[in-house]
Structure formats: structure tokens, C-alpha cells
Design goal:
Layout: E1 2-6, H1 10-23, E2 28-32, H2 35-44, E3 49-52, E4 56-57, E5 70-71, H3 74-84, E6 91-95, E7 99-102, E8 105-108, H4 109-120, E9 124-129, H5 136-144
Parallel strand pairs: 1-2, 1-3, 3-6, 6-9
Antiparallel strand pairs: 4-5, 7-8
Helix pairs in contact: 2-3
Length: 146
């Protein structure tokens, strides 16, 4: 199972990676930490599932380069890239926010999956509220993984 995890928070990345490998020991996880890196990995491979944070920096921090700025819409850029390329890789969104803003509207997480799929042509199979202090996200991720 090929998994692309697009997440800029190392702590959250570690927790999600542990949960995926516990649930799917055969999983091979590739981690991207920015929109730019995520897009590059998408161009290099197909994935059985993409685990996607919504707030992502545009690019990685490099010595002598401009400081990356976290964008609340970074995850949307990834979904748009998938749509533009005509790809239907399954996506599980893991976000710490109670809603997702796109097209000028705030969508509560329980309605966001349907709206993202309809409006962006995405293949979002679940939207999960991530809270490191609770285990609810772990159970939701176990159920959602293909």
C-alpha cells in the first residue's frame, strides 16, 4: 500500500505515521511537508491513499530562501492539482480545524467531503478532525484507510 502523507507538523506526522503502520503494517509512507513537495511527489507516483492536512506552507524552508508561510488553503491546492491532472487517488483529510473554507464558504467537516467532491471533482473519502489529545481521530482513520 502506497501512502502519501502531506503534513508540515512533525509531531502530527509521527502520530499519523504510527497509526497507519499499526493499522496497515505493509504500508509504505512517503511524507511531504509543503504544497510544492506534495505536488512533486504526486507527479512521480500514484498512491493508494493520500493523507492530507489543509494548512500547509507553499514550499519548504531552505537556507538563503524566502521563509515559507503556512496557508490555510494549502490542502486545497493539492486537491486542485489532483483534479487538474484527472486523478482520483483517494484522499483522507486530517485537519485540526472544525471547518474548511473554499469558494468563499465555510463547510463544517461533516459536510466538507461532499462539497469538496462536488465542487472540486476530488475523491475525498473522509474528513477527520485531528486532536492529539483524543483518540477519536485514530478510530476514524482506521475505518477510512482502504
Amino acid at each position: 500500500m502506497e501512502v502519501l502523507l502531506i503534513e508540515d507538523d512533525r509531531f502530527k506526522e509521527d502520530l499519523v505515521t504510527r497509526q497507519v503502520t499499526e493499522t496497515r503494517p505493509q504500508a509504505r509512507i512517503v511524507a511531504a511537508r509543503s504544497v510544492q513537495q506534495g505536488v512533486r511527489f504526486l507527479r512521480e507516483n500514484d498512491y493508494d491513499v493520500i493523507l492530507l492536512d489543509m494548512a500547509l506552507p507553499s514550499h519548504e524552508n531552505r537556507a538563503g530562501g524566502t521563509q515559507p508561510i503556512s496557508q490555510l488553503s494549502g490542502g486545497l491546492e493539492i486537491l486542485l492539482e489532483l483534479s487538474y491532472d484527472g486523478r482520483s487517488d483517494p484522499v483522507i483529510i486530517l485537519t485540526q480545524y472544525p471547518d474548511i473554507e473554499f469558494n468563499g464558504k465555510f463547510h463544517l467537516l461533516d459536510k466538507a467531503r461532499k462539497a469538496l467532491n462536488a465542487e472540486l471533482g476530488a475523491n475525498v473519502i473522509d474528513v477527520i478532525l485531528f486532536n492529539a489529545q483524543e483518540n477519536t481521530w485514530r478510530d476514524s482513520l482506521k475505518k477510512a484507510l482502504p
